[in-house]
Design a protein that fits this description.
Elements (H helix, E strand, L loop, with lengths): L3 E10 L5 E7 L4 E6 L7 E7 L9 E8 L4 E6 L3 E3 L10 E9 L4 E5 L3 E3 L4 E10 L4 E10 L8 E10 L2 E10 L18 E8 L11 E2 L4 E5 L4 E8 L2 H24 L1
Parallel strand pairs: 1-5, 4-6, 5-8, 6-9, 7-10, 8-11, 9-12, 10-12, 11-13
Antiparallel strand pairs: 1-2, 3-4, 12-15, 13-14, 15-18, 16-17, 17-18
Keywords: Chaperone, Cytoplasm, Nickel insertion
Subcellular location: Cytoplasm
Subunit structure: UreD, UreF and UreG form a complex that acts as a GTP-hydrolysis-dependent molecular chaperone, activating the urease apoprotein by helping to assemble the nickel containing metallocenter of UreC. The UreE protein probably delivers the nickel.
Length: 261
Amino acid sequence: MSVTATARITAVADGRGSTALPLLESDGPLALRRTRSPETGYARVTVVGAMSAPLGGDRLAVEVRAEDGARLTVDAAAATVALPGAGPDAGPASYTVRLSAGEGAELRWLPEQLVSARGSALDMTTRADLAPTARLVLREEQVLGRHGEPTGRLSTRLTVRRAGRPLLDQHLAYGPGAPGGWDGAAVLGGHRAVGQLLLVDPAFDHGLPAPRLLGTTAALTPLAGPAVLVTALAPDARLLRAVLDEALEGLLKDSRALRRS
């Protein structure tokens, strides 16, 4: 039996230099836990999987709102594993993430990896709507198949709008039924882990980092707006995370320098 569930988070500035969470609503397999943030002024929520999901036919969603001036980090306790449905007629699962950040807000969406298990079919959509002065740190990582198995079918779309205008619209597809060449030398080149890191920061209005390669299988691309996208490939999830973490550390250092100047 398929599951339909939507978890919701709302963060607001409390007027005392901190962030409150007036809405923390778990649903179905999406359990939300308030966790301690290592940074002063930030609220932190960890998504904890309460059951195996998404399975074929499931319809899952997470809605996150960081109101004006709020600072929120959302992470996860473990990887999400897309699994086959209970029967041949289950159909693909869907996982929708809707993010919004108001004026002066900072939202960090940092889930663990999404693993596409053999026989699964998942359509994942992430949409972010940002105010002109909002900051967004977004990381998404996909692992194509568990150890020793081929990948399932995975389709992902990442759409970001800033001040009502398109900033990024990216669609990726892997596995059975995906357009030909997805696993060829020009796309994955034998790698099983792929990830994206997006930093949107008004500080980049004063100067964007130059496009460049980050090692042999990652690239930094400035966007047509105060934002930078890093795309990376790696043989496994651990190495992918190392590349994206190093890139994020450097980009945050750049943005801090621009804000001070």
